[in-house]
Amino acid sequence: MTVHELALTTEDEESLEAELASTGGTPPIVVVLCHPHPQYGGSMRSLVISVLFAELPAAGYPCLRFNFRGVEGSSGAYAEGAGESLDVVAAIATMARTVPGVPIALVGWSFGADISLGVADPRIAGWVAIAPPLRFRASFAAATDARPKHLVLAEHDEFRKPAEVQTAVADWRDTTVAIVPGASHFFVGRTDRVVTETRAGLARFARPGG
Q1: CA distances from 122 to 47, 71, 145, 146, 171 (A)
Q2: How would you list the strands of the sheet with 149-154, edge to edge?
Q3: How many CA atoms lie within 13 A of 46 on its CB side?
Q4: pLDDT means per 10 residues in the chain (210 residues)?
Q5: 3-state DSSP assignment of residue 29
Q6: What is the pLDDT of residues 91-124, one digit of tens each?
Q7: How many other β-carbons are positioned within 10 Å of the β-carbon of residue 5?
Q8: For residues 111-123, b (16+ Cβ closer than 10 Å) or e, as one string?
Q9: Cα separations (Å) of 24 from 21, 28, 58, 62, 79?
Q10: What is the 3-state secondary structure (H, E, C) of 130-163?
Q11: Where along the chain do its domains lie?
């Protein structure tokens, strides 16, 4: 695995710091990782994102992680989800240029999951939403989208009970849900299960027809 530092430019001209972990050969799918809430210490180096950034490339899935606007070396300021959606699109565009012709999966944790589910860029093959609170967007474009979604929930989530999330997504199109036993919202000691479930979603997205 090789890691490169990048600078992403958004449609509204913010500059975002990012890292790309590349792999050899032609991957079945590539991944854009979206981190937790910027106002609560979230960054591209947060626990779950860091584990995925290490483990997914080792399994053959190149990953791009980035800091939302206003976080660490990224310019701008927190934009209540609207600007952060532009950040995600900039990351998708960068990945599409870097690894052309390969499906792109959005994988987000917490706030990053909510923001990801609000982005319906045509280059997306599917979404993995890890512990999405489903509170940081007024609506979620992925809900009515035919492309596949895989939600990874924590059994003891402190911010949104799994049963509540399952009820909220009951009518979403092509959506599967997995619950990680014993896990809190932060998945301490359970990140291996998050990796396993994320890889299950990626494998499904990479197959023809999802």
Answers
A1: 29, 27, 10, 11, 22
A2: 2-9, 15-22, 63-66, 30-34, 104-109, 124-130, 149-154, 175-180
A3: 28
A4: 95 98 92 98 98 97 98 97 97 96 97 98 98 95 98 98 98 98 98 98 80
A5: coil
A6: 999 999 999 999 999 999 999 999 999 999 999 9
A7: 9
A8: bbbbbbbbbebee
A9: 10, 12, 10, 9, 36
A10: ECCCCCCCCCCHHHHCCCCEEEEEECCCCCCCHH
A11: 2-206
What the block records as the tokens of 139 is 């609506």
What pTM value is reported for the model? 0.97
CA distance 112 to 71: 13
CATH code 3.30.420.240 for 2-206: no
Please give the single-letter amino acid code of residue 147.
Answer: R
Q: Is 172 helix (H, G, I), strand (E, B) or coil?
A: coil
